[in-house]
Design a protein that fits this description.
Length: 108
């Protein structure tokens, strides 16, 4: 997967409104106080940090980005068709992430 190509594809799909939210995503947004607008901000400012080619929704990725308010969020989405699968604040679980919240810590 060409990361640069796909982040641009994702951004273009969001700009064009060619994406959907899973029910799981909407439920997590409510639980985690994340707005759909923040998810879009993260995608527009973001970068792909993980890829999941064998996901049940098809080829998926995890995007790291910042909201306009500077909140760090991760957004998981599929590529084709584009579904926003979930979003979360990785800073709530710093034990799982390296300091930059872009790489998972290795399990010992």
């Amino acid at each position: 997967m060409n990361i640069e190509l796909n982040i641009e594809l994702i951004k273009n799909q969001v700009k064009a409104g060619v994406y959907k939210f899973t029910i799981h995503a909407i439920e997590r947004f409510i639980e985690r106080n994340i707005s759909p607008e923040e998810v879009k901000e993260v995608i527009f400012s973001g970068e792909i940090i993980e890829e999941y080619p064998e996901h049940k929704y098809g080829s998926c990725c995890l995007i790291y980005g910042l909201t306009k308010e500077g909140r760090i969020l991760h957004v998981q989405c599929s590529i084709d068709p584009m579904w926003i699968i979930t979003a979360y604040d990785p800073t709530l679980h710093p034990e799982d992430w390296e300091e930059d919240f872009k790489r998972r810590k290795r399990k010992e």
